[in-house]
Amino acid sequence: MNNKQLKLADLAKLAGVSTSTVSRALNDNPLIKKETRDKLKQLAKQHNFSLNTAASRLRSQKTNVVAVIINFDSGTEQSINDPFLLKVVGEINLALNKQGLELLLSNSFMAGDDWANYFINSRRADGIIVVGQGKDPANIEAAANAGVPLVVWGDPKTPSNYPIVGSDNFVGGRLATEHLLAGGARNIVFLGDPGHAEIGERYRGYLAALNTAKAIPHVVSIDITSGAAYQGINQLLVAKGLCFDGIMACSDMVALGAMKALKERYISIPNDVALVGFDDIAMADISHPSLSSIKQNTQRASVLLVDKLLAQLQGQAAESQVIEIKLINRQSSKG
Amino acid sequence: MNNKQLKLADLAKLAGVSTSTVSRALNDNPLIKKETRDKLKQLAKQHNFSLNTAASRLRSQKTNVVAVIINFDSGTEQSINDPFLLKVVGEINLALNKQGLELLLSNSFMAGDDWANYFINSRRADGIIVVGQGKDPANIEAAANAGVPLVVWGDPKTPSNYPIVGSDNFVGGRLATEHLLAGGARNIVFLGDPGHAEIGERYRGYLAALNTAKAIPHVVSIDITSGAAYQGINQLLVAKGLCFDGIMACSDMVALGAMKALKERYISIPNDVALVGFDDIAMADISHPSLSSIKQNTQRASVLLVDKLLAQLQGQAAESQVIEIKLINRQSSKG
DNA sequence: GAACTTTATGCAAACGTTTGCAATTATTTT
DNA sequence: AAAATAATTGCAAACGTTTGCATAAAGTTC
């Protein structure tokens, strides 16, 4: 369309002012008289001008970009398809945009192990949001130690030198388990891998609740996928029969996989086996029977993540923070 | 950690060569002797050096970034939560990474209406991938007309001056409907909004199949959400009773919403009502009964999208391309 | 109305790469 | 061994902003 790309200097010439004035005006610098600012902004819009971010970033040493890393465990089947993690990314995107920041979506494949280097030294981004603690916090710690502005979605109770925002997974696990116990379940299976940070907390909550009720724990350790859950419950049923009357699943997708296995064998939910998931994804409400779940307030979490990152970018400290959780009682468990 | 950020000039001094040599070496320019290249790369790694992308982009006028825009219809409830769209974004991310490109995740809120200006003139990205055609192609067309390298995930049969990669939605709609007819259904409801480009094609495929079979169409137009589908089917049942024996849903999430409404009323699936969805998301296999669906090969599509964008970046033309689809026959329909 | 403060603008030097061209060195040819 | 060619490397000029400092204009105070 434009045969030649307009630059700041051209705009300045058009307006009969210096480039510094235009630059300041477009950045809304109060050093420039209000009416001059408005006039120049108008002119810029009119000529379809937009600043060259490369030049701007080079000079100002600031990118206004935040890298979001989806931190999958390698060797796990939990994939880019996990609806919950993707939902969190979506919410973070909105929260960032609201602050005028952009989102560079990344993963360990691209970023390698040295995140400080890849993102910050290279001026790709000003800070990092990590979604998911994973099993091994080495990369996160290394980045934090290198002084990178960084926040993590994960379990906020984990000791760390970087802020973690997330649900109180221990309480969530305990709440879900107490709910199952209250419904009359005595033999409750924990379905998930306690080796994973957040899930481990949910597991300890589960243990605590069982302990109080003097019930016996039983864990079926699986990947965080519905397929693995389906197989896990199937195998358990084949091997030991219906030896349980409750399942506390580490996520909704996992719960739904288990639900399928139960339904296929005409095991009544919640009468024979009661079931509680975690996350409260859209499908929890749509499944039949609908799935009781621990709702995580991802929207609030995303806003907090961004706030805390912003604080760090301005040189302030930021603390980990727990997000409230809520048990959503649906048909899969006895209210 | 490092109290001072290393730059190319420092590295050059360390190695006793000029900055141009280091620059060329790190970019693997064959002008530099192989062993010098290797030595310098080694040195860079050892000193944890990484290029300043801002400077590099400014000078080379290339960003190696691709903007991905999730193109929601405004006024629609289809949201950032849609698991299918997010899955596509995930796959695109992988495909881009494989080519050494990075993904800037964006949406209409951030980018406004003038995408050429916001992304390209400002040197935020080299090209754009739009996920979803939406109801109104004005923004896409404007960008394409401005000469922006651009590809779209959508219905490839749509006439356009930009390449669209996607499934053959017409054939998909026809296939699904024929499958329902073959199972004995005669009164098949189309559940979805035909005003949306891709869904419209599915609808026309549905009509074609019905026409051949001399069956009568019936459309329930709803938003692309499971909640809307649940309500839509519920209202239909209340108003007219069980006046249908098949549902062709415009997406799996929609189909699952409908399924819930049916199950709640003890309408047998597939005996009373057979059901086919579209997308083949993970939940289709996990729901009970499992959901027959038209599988879209998103992985292949993503690779093609990236290839075609790359072609444009190199000044070559690229054409729209149809991706094969496949009917996945599960329990929700009579095979 | 001179001395001072406040407000508004311009000058010019960065920011850290990449790259056309020139210069040097090594290799081959005559 | 000189001349010609090929293989490496270095010089220095961009790329388009932002910003500290200097300057000019306007307003205030005594």
Written overview of the protein:
The structure is a homodimer of 335-residue chains. Chain A has 335 residues and is an alpha/beta fold. The first copy, chain A, folds into three domains: 8-51, no CATH class; 65-166 and 298-322, Response regulator (Rossmann fold, 3-Layer(aba) Sandwich); 169-296, Rossmann fold, CATH 3.40.50. Helix content of chain A is 45%, strand content 16%. Chain A has helices at 8-15, 19-26, 34-46, 53-60, 83-98, 108-111, 115-121, 138-145, 169-182, 197-213, 226-240, 252-264, 282-286, 298-313; strands at 65-70, 102-107, 127-131, 150-153, 164-167, 188-191, 218-220, 246-249, 274-279, 292-296, 321-323, 325-328. In chain A, the strands form two sheets. Chain A has a six-stranded parallel beta sheet, with helices on both faces. A six-stranded mixed beta sheet of chain A has the order 7-6-8-9-10-12, sandwiched between helices. In chain A, helix 10 (197-213) links the parallel strand 6 and strand 7 (218-220). In chain A, helix 2 (19-26) packs across helix 3 (34-46) and helix 5 packs across helix 14 (298-313). The termini of chain A are far apart. At the A-B interface, helix 4, helix 5, strand 2, helix 7 and helix 11 of A face helix 4, helix 5, strand 2, helix 7 and helix 11 of B. The structure holds a DNA duplex (30 and 30 nucleotides).
Describe what is shown at a glance.
Two copies of one chain form a homodimer. With 335 residues, chain A is an alpha/beta fold.
Label this structure with key terms.
homodimer, 335 residues, alpha/beta, Rossmann fold, 3 domains, six-stranded mixed β-sheet, 14 helices, 12 strands, 45% helix, DNA-binding
